[in-house]
Each structure stands twice: as structure tokens, then as C-alpha cells.
Amino acid sequence: MKTFDIQPLNKSMQAAIQKKIDNLNKPKGSLGRLEELAMQVCLIQQTLEPSLAHPCHLLLGGDHGIEREGVSVSPREVTWQQMINFTRGGGGVNMFCRQHGFKLRIVDVGVDCDLSKFDGIIDRKIARGTKNFLYEPAMSEEEFNKAIQIGSDLVDDCIAEGCRILSIGEMGIGNTSPSSIWMSIFGDIPLKDCIGAGAGLNNDGIRHKYEVLSKAVERYHGDGSDDPIFCENGITQNRPRDPLRYFGGFEMIAAIGAMLRAAEQHLIILVDGFIMTACALAAIRLYPASQDYMIFTHCGDESGHKMMLDIINAKPLLHLGLRLGEGTGALCAFPIIDSAVRMMNEMNNFDNAKITKYF
Questions:
Q1: Do 300 and 273 form a contact (C-beta atoms < 8 A)?
Q2: Long-range contacts of 311-319 (CB under 8 A, 24+ apart)
């Protein structure tokens, strides 16, 4: 697997950043969460004058072999139909990208359809969907490594255009299934507590989904290929590569590669709903320092999402009941991060405003 050099945030500027925040012409701490966000963004960028230049949104598409087991109310063809719809500007992700000035990159990482003739779709197809992990690994080691590299390369393309903030979304019918399994494995949570309605399953559908995923997990024994890592306390742990490869989707593994490269390059990473939080959880298990660069933007209504956020002690900015995916929750939260940055760059301080500092 490609390795990344992800360093924890350098906090040498923390006191200077806090001093600037406290000297803005407002009561100390009165802008609450915006002040916390401002601190994080300034530490990521190592500056007192942060920037959200050239925001980019990666929309990654891929199909899942497990969908053949009836674990989703939506049929597989919805993936490619929506990908084409995105090229015409008709999706929720299109609307929010236009509203907030994000450059949208629509990427076919593994959709079960030939989309190469459609302008506006970047062709990075690894295969026409993953294999069915009820019976075999979703992807090979080679395919896994390719997906990680694709995500990393896409971030480099964004950086080349001056991007400082990245959001990531997905389009892949059935991808709540691997997300639920990752949540169970990486969070040490019973699988039944990690499974929800996805795109709209009823109670019978949820029960069937649990039965299918339980069988898949029971049959999984790993291949012993996880990479050892050495933590500061000297304890040897493993990178959880194998369950990612065994259960994941191409679009999900590419998202992890994108998150890790973005963290390595000190970009701000906006994390959306249940599926992208599962990818973020996996990225954090691979490289714990990557969480320093993530802002968790939304807690949706998918069963277990709040529990997964609690595992990594993440505080989402919004709770709007969204379960669309596509990265829409991250895009909706962007104005809040923008407000935090504007606070740092545009608010006056007590001295310049000639206001008595009363604390």
C-alpha cells in the first residue's frame, strides 16, 4: 500500500492564534464553535490569515457486488443514471457546488457501466463494480492499491489549481453495507447496531441486510496482510488494510486515499455523512494524525452515524436529517467554516476599533 507522511498539527502557533481570536472586538469566547474552527483552520495552514481558496469537491462513483444480495432498496442502475445526471447539473451535489463555489470533479472509479463517452466524467474505472464480499474479497490487493493511488492523484490535481479545502462525496448503490461493517470492525460495535435503512429499507429489508452482512462477516477471516506500525508507546499495531480491501467499494477506498493525501498536504477536509464518516474512521485507523485535518460537517439519520462520530470524538457542525450522500452535508456546512475564516480576516480588534477591552 502507498504510504503517507501525515504529521500531527504543529501547535507552536496556538498561543498567537488564540491571542488574535481573543483580541477581536467581541466578548471572549462569544463566537463559540466558530472560534474552535478558526483555531483548527489556522493550525492546519500555519497562518494567522487563513484562506479557503479554490474549494474542490470530489464525487466518486462505484458499484458494489453485495448489492446483488438485495441489501439496498435502490437498483444498481441508479448509480450510473445519477452519474450521468450529475454531468447535466441536475443533482443535489451540483446545486450546492454552484451555491458555494466548489469545483466539482465527477469521477468514475468503478461504476458498472461504460461512462467514458460522457463529458464531465473523469474516467478512473478500476473495474465494473467490486466482487460480492458475501463469497469473496470485494477487490484484489492490486485493485485496492490502485484505488488509493487514484484518490491521492485526484487531490494532487486539486492542489495544482490552488485548492486549500476539499470535500468528498460518493455515489454507489449498496455502499452503506461496507460502511456498516467497517463501523463494526473498527469501532468494536455489534453489527446489528451499525445497520440502518440506507436509501430507504423497511424493517424486513433491514433484517435481511443484517442477515446477509452477518454471513459475510462470519466467513471473513482476513489474510494476515495488514501492515505493522509502531506507535509512540512502542506497541506494535496493524494498519487495518485487509478489511478495507475485503469489504470496501472502489469509490470508498479512493476517498480514503484522497483524505490521506489531503492530510499529508495540509488541506482542510470536510467529511460528510455516514459513508464518508466510515471512510474517515478507516483513514484515522490507518493514520491517526489524519483526523487533525478533518472537519465533521453533518450527522445524518442513518442508524449508527452518531455512534460512529462518538467513536472518534467528532463534533458535527450540522444535524439536518440529510441522507442523500454525494457530500451534500459537507457542502451545506461550508458557510460555517467560511464564517470562521472571515472572522479571523475581517473582524476588527479592540485597539483598531478604539473599544475598551474589558477582560
A1: yes
A2: 311/183, 311/186, 311/187, 311/189, 311/281, 312/280, 312/281, 312/284, 314/271, 314/277, 315/33, 317/33
Instruction: Dump pLDDT digits (tens) for 40-74.
Output: 999 999 999 999 999 999 999 999 999 999 998 88
326 counts as catalytic: yes
Burial class (CB in 10 A: 0-12, 13-18, 19+), 297: buried
CA distance 37 to 334: 11
Contacts of 75 (CB under 8 A, 6+ apart): 173
Catalytic annotation, pick one of 67, 170, 264, 326: 326
Strand partners, 170: 60
**CA quadruple 170, 248, 317, 189: dihedral, nearest 10:** 150
**pTM for the structure as a whole:** 0.93
